[in-house]
Amino acid sequence: MKTRVISGIAMAPLLILVLLGGHFVTGFALVIALMGVREFFNGFRAMDIKPSYPIAVISIVLLFAIDILRFNISPANRFGIEIEWTTAYVFWMFFSILISLLYLFNIDERKVEDGMATITGIVYVGFFAHHIVLTEWHFGELPGATPVWLIFITAFGSDIFAYFGGYFFGKHKLCPKISPKKTVEGAVSGVVCTIILTVLFAHFFLKSDVNVFLYVLVGLTGSIVSMFGDLTASIFKRKMGIKDYGTLIPGHGGVLDRVDSVLFTAPMVYYSMLFIHWIS
Predict the structure, then answer these.
(1) 250 or 209: which carries more pLDDT confidence?
(2) Which of 7, 38, 183, 274 lies at a CB distance of 3.0 to 4.6 Å from 166, suitable for a disulfide?
């Protein structure tokens, strides 16, 4: 436990980047994506599947470049051509799939699984992580604290309270074949406490016209998908035959071991925020 606490403190400087906001958040998310996809691919290599890390880097950097351009230039470029950002993201998806499949052209050395694993890593790690950037640039200029914190509150809050709820009250296994230590009581504790944390954060730190109780939706959906993220990571690691994705952070494994839930809460918080602002 002491090692895990020290490791958690060691991660604090990264969260300072979230506090600084703007491009610092973009940099934070990009580092998470690039380091996370490397660890994810190392897991596949334990199964003798060889995804392409260079292709993933090209794809992820292009995605974040689109994000930066989108939120830092006017809707029209110097030639007066209207920029349709939805088309840019669709092109990114097409391009990423294309280069991942071209990776298979070295047919004597590549298997179909190599290309599929490359695409999976790009989407699961890179595309999911880029929602941290979307949340910051869409909602970061609202009065009060940035809603990016909700991504981490729902992920880590759910994890912490599910652990203690399971420790004190756990009797019924949630998914024994996937994660034997997780319990139904722990899951319920994680959801309820995360909702409370989210509403309190919204009330005291988010200064917007949105009814604070609408943030119950953010806490509910965020905590549930956080558990999905954790369980999905457990499934991957079990199939890969590894305990942790990496060893970078003592007591926590690799970067991806620490942010597996964040990869799921980032999109859910972003789309939940869009929804509650749309109905308000």
Answers:
(1) 209
(2) 183
Nearest alpha carbon to residue 274 among 141, 145, 138: 138
Half-sphere exposure of 200 (CA within 13 A, CB side): 9
Beta-carbon contacts of 138 under 8 Å, excluding residues fewer than 6 positions away, are 270, 273, 274
Instruction: Tell me which of 83 and 107 has the higher pLDDT.
Output: 107
Domain range for 186:
2-279
CB 117 within 8 A of CB 51: yes
Query: Dihedral sign, CA of 142, 143, 149, 150?
Result: negative
pLDDT digits (tens, 9 = 90+) for 174-230: 998 898 889 999 999 999 999 999 999 998 888 777 788 889 999 999 999 999 999
Taking the whole predicted model, whether its pTM rises above 0.85 is answered as yes
Tokens, residue 168? 């004190």
Number of domains in the chain: 1
Report helix, strand or coil for 182: strand
- Other C-beta atoms lying within 10 Å of the C-beta of residue 79: 5
What is the DSSP secondary structure assignment for residue 147, as one 8-state letter? T
CA dist 62 and 48 (Å) reads: 28
> What phi, psi does 74 have (nearest 5°)?
-75, 165
Task: Give the closest residue to 222 by CA, choosing from 149, 122, 142, 127.
Answer: 149
DSSP assignment string, 23-39: HHHHHHHHHHHHHHHHH
Alpha-carbon Rg of the chain, whole angstroms?
A: 20
**Is residue 41 a contact partner of residue 103, using CB atoms and an 8 Å limit?**
no
Angle at alpha carbon of residue 245, lines to 184 and 93, rounded to 5°? 95
Single-letter code of the amino acid located at 167: Y
What token pair was written down for 27?
């940099």
Tokens representing 134 are 């979307």
